[in-house]
Amino acid sequence: MRLRTVDAFATAPYTGNPAAVVLLDADGFPEDSRLQALAGELNLSETAYAHPLTDDPEADWALRWFTPTTEVDMCGHATLATAHLLAEDGLLAEGERVRFRTRSGVLSASREPDATLTLDFPTAELTPVPVPDGVGQAFDTEAVAAWDTGTLGMLVLELSDEKTLRELAPAAEAVAALPAPVVIVTAAAAPSAAGPAAGEPGHDFVSRVFAPSQGLPEDPVTGSAHTALAPLWSGRLGRDTLTGLQASRRTGYVRTTLRGDRTLLGGRASTVLDAELRTQL
């Protein structure tokens, strides 16, 4: 069985967020325990499994995502990685769209003329909440504001500036004790007279994402988090289309376009490994 890993939301190989992807031939998934076991063996932030659908008028593929410890309801970078491989395999042409049946409903991806892939995801509903107790202990800095994200299940914390965000050294146990399994920290982009580095886009806001209770001390690039960051920063900056930088060690860029209750997430991807499983799922 073929297994590939793809760097998603990446400007070059070995940046962005690596996802493992298994495209299955059968019209169905193996046992959940085996899907989870392989995801644990690979130990990437997500492993995606997809199989074609032949009798679903609303979707072309079924898609599921697993962290090393659990199945998740939504994952942007592994969806981008899956669409990238469909394009590589000649199953997603330029200008075409593929639809995925997932635990979060039908999500789609389209292939742009410049090789960018664009995901169409539901926009998260942001509700301002008091900054939870324990944030200072978790991050050794205080947040200036906080938002609940409804069914997305993430907590958004705004920090004072990009420098503070980049220098965070979170305490995993304290982060895991906060009232959400996934914590997004974000800040406005720092003013820079020099502009972006050569070969990299500029950015309008920065973020980092932590999910130690889900086996992810820090996620390199989190597409789904940008369904909450897009309405926050588009509302703040007055523009529908922005570029977010997730300032993890690997770094990654996500182009966001806010369209009401839908958010478009754009990025590039690169296949870095093509292997054959010696055992069957």
Shape: globular
Averaging pLDDT over every residue, what do you get?
Answer: 94
The overall strand count is 18
Question: How much of the sequence is in beta strands?
Answer: 35-45%
Protein name: PhzF family phenazine biosynthesis protein
Keywords: Isomerase
Family: Belongs to the PhzF family.
Organism: Streptomyces oryzae
Description:
The protein is of the alpha+beta class and 281 residues long. It is built from 6 helices and 18 strands. It has 2 domains: 2-120 and 267-276, Diaminopimelate Epimerase, Chain A, domain 1 (Roll), CATH 3.10.310; 127-260, Diaminopimelate Epimerase, Chain A, domain 1. It has helices spanning 32-42, 76-88, 135-139, 162-166, 172-176, 226-237; strands spanning 2-8, 17-23, 46-52, 61-66, 71-72, 97-102, 105-111, 117-122, 127-129, 145-148, 154-158, 182-188, 205-211, 216-219, 241-246, 252-259, 262-267, 269-276. The chain has an 18-stranded mixed beta sheet that branches. The chain is globular, with a radius of gyration of 18 Å. The N and C termini lie close together (8 Å). Belongs to the PhzF family. Keywords: Isomerase. This is PhzF family phenazine biosynthesis protein.
